[in-house]
Amino acid sequence: MAKAYEKIADELRAQIRGGRLKPGDRLPSEADLIRSSGRSGPTVQQALRVLQAEGLIEKQHGRGTFVRRPRALVQRANTRHQWEKDRARAPERQRLETGATEHDTGLGVGDLVFHATYREVEASQEIAAALGVEPGTALVERTYRTRYSAERSPFSLVTSHLIRDLVKANPDLLDETKEPWPGGTWNQLHTVGIEIDRVEERVTARPPTVEEAEELGLPPGTSVLVLRKTSYDTDDRIVEMSVVTLPGDRTEMLFTTHLERW
Q: Which fold would CATH assign to domain 4-67?
């Protein structure tokens, strides 16, 4: 037998999925739900917590509880890497027309808000091991945030590391004001004679930190996918390593493997 809070949650869920309550609509107040259901405050609150954990509703401080608007989906496919490599040598006009985020979301350049920050750091033990360099090696640490202009939270949290000595021949690659860079990292590396040969990606899932959940706007209980991407050049050197933290409620990972025919 369903518990009292489950019955309340079921009714509201049916209204949301049936379209009677639409994205952005305000739910009845807790007082109204208590009166209409004949249940106690804690029972109504538990029902709302269930729906919030499912990502169907969200509480807005001082305003009430609303049906959550579906967020733009990101489909990150492994085929994007060949697309990025091909684009790296395209004319600048073509590179300016679209980027990796537009590729993954179907949005246009004008739909996005982009922010990048650069700083020079020394490689920690962990990062040095990942890049195959000595601890203390000078790196360029870059952080990226891109969001849909109609939303408040970014699609992902990106931290990228380049080995400074590999890119210093082009001073523009040390300057965050040159972002967004047409053609992204692949073109940046191309300007200093580096061609990417292969990309290795490792994906794990875990609960978000408090800071990650807040920045990504995650519903309670939503996990993040952590993608660690390592790029190797044609001389088998690691030339870039990035960690991408992706929200589990809006990210789809698509892997296509072409097999040789018999």
A: Arc Repressor Mutant, subunit A (1.10.10)
